[in-house]
Amino acid sequence: MxxxxxxxxxxxxxxxxxxxxxxxxxxxxxxxxxxxxxxFTRATLPGAPVAGGFVTIANAGSAxxxxxxxxANFATEVQVHEMALQGDVMKMRxxxxxxxxxxxxxxxLKPGSYHVMFMGLTRPLTEGETVDVTxxxxxxGDVALKMAVIAPGKAHMGAGKPxxxxxxxxx
Length: 171
Description:
It is a single chain. The chain is mainly beta and 171 residues long. It is built from 1 helix and 11 strands; from the N terminus they run H-E-E-E-E-E-E-E-E-E-E-E. Strands 1, 2, 3, 4, 5, 6, 7, 8, 9, 10 and 11 form an 11-stranded mixed sheet that branches. The longest helix is centred in the N-terminal third of the chain and has 12 residues, at 2-13. The protein is globular.
């Protein structure tokens, strides 16, 4: 009789933001000198038209590459976007020429910065699931990876490091 009470009391002390149903951190993917890791998106409400996708891309190769788009079976289109402060206003825009991934550098797609935008969602994304996404690079081609779906507003689980960003080289 005391054990159920203690279990209930212990659970009451656990922060509400802690989720026991987190999906495991997807494995890193390596292709043509690129390593894609820490891939995630956020859960969406039913009827939401868009979602963002985030991933760390390290280019250990000797040649620059460029992220130019992608595919996902839960969206009608995948675009490469950036958010940038223009004056006092944060603006989001598509990068029609894609995002440079310079040789020897790491580019982090993260909330409030570079990201892939899943347009025309065909279904809600549910916390705890893992979704299949294909990112398209100019040189490396199509790269399939899995993205964890985490709670809205939650920091990326398992990144294990600050989500810093190396600035792409200027054109």
